[in-house]
Amino acid sequence: MPPSTERPPTRPGLERRAVAAFSLVELLVSVVILGLLSAGAARVLTGDLVGNSTLQTYQRLRRQVGRARRFLELETATATRLQWQSANSLRLSGVNNGTAFTISYDLVPAASAGISGVTFRGPFVLRRNGPPYSSGGLLSNSAATNTVVLDGLANEQAVTVSAAQTTADRSARVTINLSDGGTTYSSVFSLATAAPSGYGLLQFSETNASLSGCSGDPNGCRQANGIQEWDTRLLSGSSPITITPVGSPNQVIVYFNAPRSTADIRRAQSSSSGTCIRTSCYIDFASGSDFLINAASSRVDKLVFLDTVIAVPRQ
Amino acid sequence: MASVRPGPGIVAGFSLTELLIAVAILGLLSAATLFGLLRSARIGALRAAAIDLAGYLETAQATAAGSTDACSLAISGSGDNQQIGPSNAAGNACAALASQPLLSGSVIPLGLVVTTAGTLTIAPRGTLESPVTIRLSEANTQNLEYCVQLLPPAGLVGTGVYRNNSCDHAAFN
After folding, report:
1. Tens of pLDDT, residues A193-230
2. Distance CA B145, CA B160 (A)
3. B34 sits in which H/E element
4. Do the Cβ atoms of A137 and B133 come within 8 Å?
5. DSSP structural state of residue A133
6. Tell me, which fold does domain B16-171 have in CATH?
7. CATH code for the structural domain at A204-306
8. Is B105 within 8 Å of B47 (Cβ atoms)?
9. Which of residues 80-119 of A touch B (CB under 8 A)?
10. pTM (2 decimals)?
């Protein structure tokens, strides 16, 4: 007799329970399906959050670079000299209200920032060493302090300074690369701001000039504090001006009110000589030689003689 | 007393003791989970407040950068209803900025405590004379403090965790 396929009779209550419940296999299958759905949802949600976080990080880095850029432009417009010894070391110097100042920018590890009360993100920061600013927003003559202009720099080459080769004024070009959590932001900008009125004078010790025809105001020439300066009243106009220095100043720096080409400053006895950086040009000539300033359709803001080498961009 | 064993006509079930133990365990787990969730929510609200405050300071700094006037800010109100906005100083470069609640969108009461070191003034052209540090914490549990800093001279804005008298930007992840 074949085995019976009929299930043994059960009591009515137990039978209903068996019918209403899920089997173990059904439960496991449903758990697996729910797990897969949850994993998928979590992946989508996480991806959305990561994308949003990346965008916020990018925007934050962009704001940081924008702020640093505005500040660097402000500082370079204040300074009269711009130089750098290496790719990540920038020096600015000038005179502020009769007092010489030097500002240095260096890329250093965050731990070397040397500022109390702050632990920076790092791994590198752009550190500024120079006089602080007053409550009026002007550079003060107080002692130099360490401050940080940019945080979150990824490596020692995150900020580089070079000379723009393609523009006539060869303005300084700064490249900043910020990186934070895999998000990077790069910005390249040129420092082309003209020196504002009131700045552009040279340090007392840097001047050792003797300028013929300079008898003081109101002739447009001043010799205050050892600084030989001709101002715009004398140098305005469209006619070339011939300057004949007396003594042994070997360099002359000329500040224009706008970027000019090297053709605007020439030695009289040769076709061309001079280098322009931003809104200033300098000429290095033999003692006693004449040179021309061909400032047609432009204005010369400053003309200063000095006997030290003006730093020029590394090529 | 002899234990009752399932027999004919008796459906196997949990004893009252077992049920009570299970309910107690579930209760403890639920309480721990709820406590953790509330703590996470409070920390998240505090952290969001720090980020929002940093954003406001960045906006104020950018506003001052394009002005020859100083930007003066003030924090007013108390507890969770504190807000930051332009002060009544004359010639305020940030006068047009709208005030912003420090706790925006938080439904969990924190009893926000704000401690400010430095003057909330950004100099003309967006520079700063001295650092400003704003610390944010809860009223009851001040073991965790977030900090927002506005640093001279360029107005660098950073958020961090305040500990050992220092604002640790690296710890703010």
Report:
1. 333 333 332 222 223 333 444 444 443 444 444 444 44
2. 9
3. helix B16-65
4. no
5. B
6. minor pseudopilin epsh fold (3.55.40)
7. 2.60.120
8. no
9. 110, 115-119
10. 0.64
